[in-house]
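Support request, please re-run this one:
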Amino acid sequence: MAYREDRDLEFLAYCSNEDLNDLVYLLTHDPEDGKTRNTEELTSSQNYRRYYPDHQKYWQDIAAEIQTFGANTIATIFRLGKGVLYKEILCDACEDMKVNFNKSSSTKAIEKNLLDKVYTQAIEDLSEEQKKEVLQSLDLPTTNLSNQALTASLQAALLNVNFSPIVFMNFAPIFLQQTLLGRLLGIATGPIGWGLTTMWTVSDLAGPAKRVTIPAVIQIAMLRRKYS
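Re-run finished. Output below.
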């Protein structure tokens, strides 16, 4: 496993250890049974064993693991042990999730399209009562609103470019109860399972690499938004 210089992943060096925890766990463990993934290489790296849980000190190894899983999805043969660049992994995930995007757009713009799709679908899968609960957590009005109006209010709040991911994390468990990935991976809290709802069937995530790269891309997109 070797890191390819990738400007789209360099920001990981500035993420807090707390924010990197979920990403590292996702890359190294199967949340369904808590066992280390057979295909992961991160935990055997020298820097991981030396610095864990100080994730910032081995961020390049984390990035390399993402690139390697991406290569498992896109290509069958690694070049000198290196994976593929993050933007290629992102575009591959967006195609699987049927996100409307332009490959020539910036990484940040593509990630916005991805998160918009995630938010929109997550909202649609909530019951009327759950939508009210989320709106109340944001101190937004919920009285005298139809289900359609509740949906519109949530979309306006969650799709706002300046919306804080920290606020979203406060009610993420509500969404996770509705997500396919939450059921597949056994995740009850945290941002990993956002928006992977029943629109993506079990067969869509059947490949081991897909079960890593798709939630990893969503998590990276949220981290970039937070740190930008």
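The chain has eleven helices and two strands. Residues 76 and 83 are 10 Å apart (CA to CA).
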